[in-house]
Amino acid sequence: MTVMRERKKAGLRKWMLLLLVAGVMLLGCISACAESFSIRASMTFGDTRVTVSSRYVNQKHTLSIPGSWDLSRVYIEMTGPDRIRVGDTEIVSGQLNDLTNCLGLKQNYYSAKGLKQPGTLSILHGSSIPSMHIEVRKRDLRTTNSDKHNVITQGTVVYLEADGTVSYDGKIESFKGRGNSTYAYSKKPYQVKLASKADLSGMGKDKTWLLIANWLDLSLLRNEIILQLADQIGMPYAVECRMVDLYLNGEYNGLYLMTEKIQIGRSRIRITDLEETTETINTVDVSTVKKFKETKTEGLQMLRGYRIPVDPEDITGGYILEIEKTHRFTDKIDNGFRTSNGLSVTVKEPTYASRAQVKYIGTLVSDFHKAVLAGDGRSPDTGKYYADFIDMESWALKWWVEEISKNYDAMASSQFFFKDSDKVDSRLYAGPCWDYDLSCGNMHATNFVYGASPTRDYVAVYSSKKTNLYRALYQHDDFKTLLSDIYRTRVRPALGILLGETESRPEDTLRPFDRYAEEIDASAQMNFTRWPESLVSGYYRKSGTTHQQSADYLKSFFTRRVEYLDSVWLK
Known about the structure:
Blueprint: H1 2-36, E1 38-45, E2 48-53, E3 55-57, E4 60-65, E5 74-79, E6 83-86, E7 89-92, E8 95-97, E9 104-107, E10 110-111, E11 120-125, E12 131-135, H2 138-146, E13 156-160, E14 166-177, E15 190-199, E16 205-212, H3 222-233, E17 241-248, E18 251-260, H4 274-281, E19 291-297, E20 300-306, E21 319-323, H5 326-332, E22 336-338, E23 344-349, H6 355-373, H7 392-405, E24 415-419, E25 428-430, H8 449-452, H9 469-474, H10 477-498, H11 513-519, H12 521-530, H13 547-569
Parallel strand pairs: 4-11, 12-17
Antiparallel strand pairs: 1-2, 1-5, 3-4, 5-8, 6-7, 6-10, 9-11, 12-13, 13-14, 14-15, 15-16, 16-18, 17-18, 19-20, 20-22, 21-23, 21-24, 22-23, 24-25
Helix pairs in contact: 3-7, 7-10, 10-13
């Protein structure tokens, strides 16, 4: 009896094992069948043919189609079946198809014989915005996604406007990652440099364009709105931007904010190009010369740059400068200075600045820093009044952008200012504005209570450090008077447009908040299908854990912020 029982148990275990193996094989077969299916959509615009591909993840196929495409005449190619049925629509490989009635998330799809296919298919159609299609070698893209310093030099770009016009169809000069902490996230920010200048979406002809991922901002709107607010109130050389759907090697990579790069140029910051002049008069490639680092150099705490052999006769401009975090400047910056009062500043242009150039601009900024910190507003070294160093209006406008947005980086990073040659203008100008994903309540660190509340003052009270230029400026009555005048005459009317109190005119950059949200609604759905909101972690959680919640929170923040500022500045 015992032997018989053991034989039965052994037989049962054998059958269970066979069933398990068969189940695994069946699941593997189903998975393989699902993965082997793919769908590509193409459309021709003039002489340019654009193709997008489905993406397969976890038994789900997703085909994201640009909003500029006419869904009634999309050319389809499929691997696997030559035709499938989605709802009541038959999709046939190798011909034009009408996909109008196929839109939706995770739909079942069937073979021509009516057999349900493994997995689901989602066909999505983006918003009426431009799309950028970049093709590079897959292995190069993988390398760049793991190392932002890897530069891809071979590839092509097609840029489709919202109306289907092709603004660029050609080669790239380079494609690489960009950003600091933002490059650690799954959705990467990029910089693309075209082989020839192109005017994309009316932003002026240039080669270099930035693609901002907005990973930490689930509303996807903060950067666009604040940059356009800066333009509306008259910030000099405000960065232009457009929402675009980005495709990499045919696959949808998300909704991005495409912007100009902050750089000297005819369609960018129109000041003297000191870098170009320096390169012209030197016989060596200035990018190959040795670097230098000095500490406590003639009134500066730190000086860094390049040992360039020959300087132009005029080294007073132009410069693009950026206030940088102390630790980042110490560890990573090769071109810049630290003032005698501890303000760390990167020289962004010239990219390779000589010792004389860094010392000149460093000494000037350090003297301004001393003056603005002084109670009487005068430098203890030169006696020069703080307002004589700067363009007061641009600094007051920049003060307002940081105050309204309660930008987390306002005190330590992404704060740009620039200077032309003395032959043109000897003053320091604030701007352009940059980097507002951690603004408008989208930052809730325990040491940042001021940033979470729309009903408290900010830049003048948050930090008493000597490096807080906004607080230092606020201590001077003439600056506060200018702030009050600008709020009434320029800032408040612009905020009225954003809140929908007044209608925007054709010449206005800023639009009502609801229009911003509506304009990206379909592409936001595609973006969060590609990058689910649940993947995003970190600073944003109290300002909404979904796209809709974050957009609603942002609108509420602006409403409450303006109510508070009115109570303070319109008394």
